[in-house]
DNA sequence: CCTACCGATCGGTAGG
DNA sequence: CCTACCGATCGGTAGG
């Protein structure tokens, strides 16, 4: 939100150069308040919320992971719940931005619905399972702990995210390559993808590309002969 | 375990007859220790663990929901985690029993793989979303709170459950009606089903039959013409 | 952002 | 299974 302002200030304040011993956790004093610590808090919270759940994570855990002391997170966030919301909000915004950019780039070359779905799915897996992506899993599995208002705000972003998929799914449905009611198909497909958080192990078995291939193969019906498109 | 001993004792101690004012929740003294209270605890725990999560539920919540006082759950279970395990264990055993019975009954009449899959899926939705079924959702979404040993024990049951699906899925795969690696297909399909816990609303929209239909339609490829079976 | 601290809650236990 | 209770932890705040 207003981080840009704070960030600018830090550039001015900072001695700019290298040379500070700096203990592990603590940042240099001139980096204080510049928004970086806030980001570190959100990152630490995302990682811990994912691994231990919202209720299983204490604000002390988060503070320690960000190299702070007990009460310091409350300097940046007014409550633990606000931290949770920040994680989810950032997760959704970055996922939307990523998919939007991918779709824009792709549409220039090959506007094939099946290829677009594969792109969306592949990116979705990356957001769910890729390195450093704890935000969306937290969003998916910890929303019980949100307030009603937070839930409403995030539902808007989720709607935006789904809206990116809808035309692609509709096109495939119209071509008879995705069967059944589109709304239910979308929910089932998202479920298949989102559940991968529970079982995917990056160290063994399939790659994210394998997953995307398997998903496309499973959900998208083979084109009926080749006649369907030219009757 | 050794509850039988305590049970006998209570029968002796109890005044046996009627006539006691008794507050709402309490059972009659002669029903004490007969195992019913244990069942009530597990049921209450299942409902609360599902709604608020394991970490978000206190043993006092559970005690109150079962009409007991603060420390009483620990008369039946040695820890909160043991209660969680009991919920999941019962959930898995009853789900396995249900699917096994359904498969046995069905195999007598029509051994059609697609119909069998539809049966499994329909029952799975019932176990996930039907009335009073909080056990499997807890199993699916709270396993983070298990100890390693508990997780191992439950993994065995999960394997048994999956084993019921495997021949059906393999048959469909062999017929070319489920595409891609069977293992990944199974994981994706389970995900699609299990995720319904997050969005299904019994009061509006689709029924469990609608869901099962949509799932079958989405996952199972239309038989290629009708020729595939008689080459 | 640290220090010191508060009130509340929690899992669990003793002792009957 | 109840009563009374303990030690630990937790979210959050004051005051700098």
Structural commentary:
The structure is a homodimer of 231-residue chains. The first copy, chain A, has 231 residues and is mostly helical. Chain A has a domain at 85-222: Tetracycline Repressor, domain 2. The first copy, chain A, is 65% helix and 0% strand. Mean pLDDT of chain A is 85; it is low at 1-33 and 226-231. Chain A binds chain B through residues 52-56, 140-141, 144-145, 178-181, 184-185, 187-196, 198-199, 206, 210-211, 213-215, 217-219, 221-222, 224, and chain B through 52-56, 140-141, 144-145, 178-181, 184-185, 187-196, 198-199, 206, 210-211, 213-215, 217-219, 221-222, 224. Chain B binds a DNA duplex (16 and 16 nucleotides) through residues 6, 10, 26, 32-33, 37, 58-60, 68-72, 74-76, 78-80.
Quick take:
By secondary structure, the first copy, chain A, is an all-alpha fold. Chain A contains 11 helices and no strands.
Index terms:
Tetracycline Repressor, domain 2; DNA-binding; homodimer; mainly alpha
Write the layout of secondary structure elements.
Two copies of one chain form a homodimer.
Chain A: H1 3-13, H2 36-52, H3 59-65, H4 73-76, H5 80-109, H6 113-129, H7 135-141, H8 148-174, H9 182-194, H10 196-199, H11 208-219
The structure holds a DNA duplex (16 and 16 nucleotides).
Compressed to H and E, one letter per element, the order of chain A equals HHHHHHHHHHH
Please state the average pLDDT score of chain A: 85
- Tell me which CATH architecture of one domain in chain A applies here: Orthogonal Bundle
Number of helices of chain A: 11
Quaternary state of this entry equals homodimer
Structural classification of chain A: mainly alpha
Main β sheet profile of chain A: none
What's the N-to-C terminus distance of chain A? 53 Å
The chain pair forming the largest interface, with residue counts per chain, is: A-B, 39 and 39 residues
The gross shape of chain A turns out to be elongated
Helix content of chain A: 55-70%
Name given to the CATH homologous superfamily of one domain in chain A:
Tetracycline Repressor, domain 2
Beta content of chain A comes to: under 5%
CATH topology of one domain in chain A: Tetracycline Repressor, domain 2
Would you identify the regions of chain A where 5 or more consecutive residues have pLDDT less than 50? 1-33, 226-231
* Beta-strand segment tally of chain A: 0
CATH class of one domain in chain A: Mainly Alpha
| Rg of chain A (CA only) | 21 Å
């Amino acid at each position: 939100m207003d981080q840009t302002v704070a960030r600018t200030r830090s550039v001015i304040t900072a001695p700019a150069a290298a040379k500070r011993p700096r203990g592990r956790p603590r940042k240099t004093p001139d980096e204080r308040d510049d928004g970086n610590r806030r980001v570190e808090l959100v990152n630490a919270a995302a990682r811990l919320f994912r691994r231990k759940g919202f209720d299983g994570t204490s604000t002390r855990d988060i503070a320690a992971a960000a190299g702070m002391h007990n009460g310091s997170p409350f300097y940046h966030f007014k409550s633990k719940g606000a931290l949770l919301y920040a994680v989810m909000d950032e997760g959704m915004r970055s996922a939307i931005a990523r998919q939007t950019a991918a779709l824009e780039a792709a549409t220039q070359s090959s506007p094939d619905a099946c290829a677009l779905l594969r792109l969306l799915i592949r990116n979705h897996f990356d957001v769910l399972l890729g390195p450093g992506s704890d935000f969306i899993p937290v969003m998916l599995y910890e929303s019980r702990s949100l307030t009603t208002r937070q839930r409403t705000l995030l539902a808007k972003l989720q709607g935006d995210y789904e809206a990116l998929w809808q035309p692609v799914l509709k096109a495939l449905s119209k071509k008879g390559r995705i069967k059944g009611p589109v709304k239910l198909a979308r929910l089932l497909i998202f479920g298949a993808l989102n559940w991968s958080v529970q079982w995917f192990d990056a160290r063994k078995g399939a790659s994210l590309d394998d997953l995307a291939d398997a998903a496309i193969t499973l959900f998208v019906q083979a084109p009926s002969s080749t006649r369907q498109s030219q009757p």
